[in-house]
Amino acid sequence: MNNNPGAGNCSHPAHVLVRGESGQVSLRLARIMGFRIGVFFVLLGGMSMWVYFATDFADAPIYWLFFASLGLLILGIILIRRNYSPPPPSDRFRLLRRRKREEREDR
To answer: Tens of pLDDT along 6-32?
Structure first.
């Protein structure tokens, strides 16, 4: 059970509010939420772009829908790029790397 106010009953690491000494929400949570909001805007922009193309195909284009979807796509891509964090390094071939490093040290 999580005793953190604002986190509800969820114990998922992405939903836990981590407060520092200054009482601010952690940067990790802000990055996760920014990334998710960016993905939401990209999906919303893509769907509205699809609706615009459907209206254009029906010879009744709604031009504001095109510009709104373009704006959502751009905003979503900016949020995703700003809040993207690369995955941690993999330990996939650690035995081979260790063996290769030991061979170099023996030379």
So the answer is: 545 555 555 555 555 555 556 777 778
Using alpha carbons, list the distances in angstroms from residue 14 to 26, 33, 35, 63, 80.
11, 9, 12, 38, 16
Q: What angle do CA 65, 68, 73 make, to 5 degrees?
A: 120
DSSP letter, residue 42: H
Full-model pTM? 0.60
pLDDT 10s digits, 74-103: 999 999 999 887 778 777 888 888 888 888
Burial class, 84, CB count within 10 angstroms (exposed 0-12 / middle 13-18 / buried 19+):
exposed
